[in-house]
Amino acid sequence: MTRKFVVALSRAQDDPDRATVAFTLANAAIGCDQETVVFLSSDGVKLAVEGEAAGIAEPGFTPLAELMRKFVEAGGQIYACLPCFNKRGLDASRVVPGVMIVGGAKLVAFMADGAPSVSY
């Protein structure tokens, strides 16, 4: 049985509810001893940049920046899609600690032996 889990997130400030729920679930997966990756694609890559998650605090949820920090501190990995990141002209020198800017092959390699996933 696989002990891997992937949360794919393509939203950021444009949909703070989905972004928050994605990282809430990712933290739950880590808490269930799953090796967990959050894959940021499309506009979701904006969350890879320092300060972009600040101010996102959905009622009833932990603020997004704190969820992201806790996820990384617990051993979670955040992958940001390289082509998506470059398309948006984002600054790689301002990437949040724990984020890796990667090509799709990195995600495929993580999932190759089987990994359930959810998308937001």
Properties at a glance:
five-stranded parallel sheet; 5 strands; globular; alpha/beta; single chain; Hypothetical Protein Ychn, Chain: A; 33% helix; 120 residues
What's this entry about, in short?
This protein has helices spanning 16-31, 64-73, 82-87, 104-111; strands at residues 4-9, 35-40, 77-81, 99-102, 117-119. It has 120 residues and is an alpha/beta fold. The protein has one domain: 3-Layer(aba) Sandwich (Hypothetical Protein Ychn, Chain: A), CATH 3.40.1260.10.
State the name of the first-level CATH class: Alpha Beta
Question: Architecture, CATH level 2?
Answer: 3-Layer(aba) Sandwich
Q: What is the count of structural domains?
A: 1
Shape: globular
Query: What is the terminal separation in angstroms?
Result: 24 Å
Oligomeric state of this protein: single chain
Q: Helices and strands, in N-to-C order?
A: EHEHEHEHE
How large is the radius of gyration? Answer: 13 Å
Low-confidence stretches: none
CATH topology: Hypothetical Protein Ychn, Chain: A
Could you characterize what this model shows?
The structure is a single chain. This protein is an alpha/beta fold and 120 residues long. It has one domain (4-119): Hypothetical Protein Ychn, Chain: A (3-Layer(aba) Sandwich). It has helices spanning 16-31, 64-73, 82-87, 104-111; strands at 4-9, 35-40, 77-81, 99-102, 117-119. The longest helix is centred in the N-terminal third of the chain and has 16 residues, at 16-31. It is globular. It starts with a strand and ends with a strand. The model has no long low-confidence stretch (mean pLDDT 97).
